[in-house]
């Protein structure tokens, strides 16, 4: 009976030691925001967000963000043109073309080098044909 008790105690001690072992997984801890301006954004924050052009007017809205397999941003799909959902097209623009600033309790997205006319004349992309979604 002593052997069983010692074995059980050794198992409990080993289990407790294992449970206290530090994590080695790539865990990220982000600092809490200090003030009104966000320091990080979720991609869902961009969905259907209006984008303003060089003249300060709305030029489109974000349809989606296209990522490379390494996690970097390949492009941003902007929905441009059309009226009431008819005649719209998606155009891919570089992430670097966008400027994101904190505004009130949200964000403002601008593309200071783009205009509605430039985007409407750009080649449309069909994300589904690229294997990206079901547009």
TrEMBL record:
It comes from the Bacteria. Residues 50-113 form the PRC-barrel domain. Coiled coil: none annotated. The keyword Ligase does not apply. Gene3D superfamilies: PRC-barrel domain. Keywords: Signal. This is Photosystem reaction center subunit H. It comes from Pseudorhizobium endolithicum.
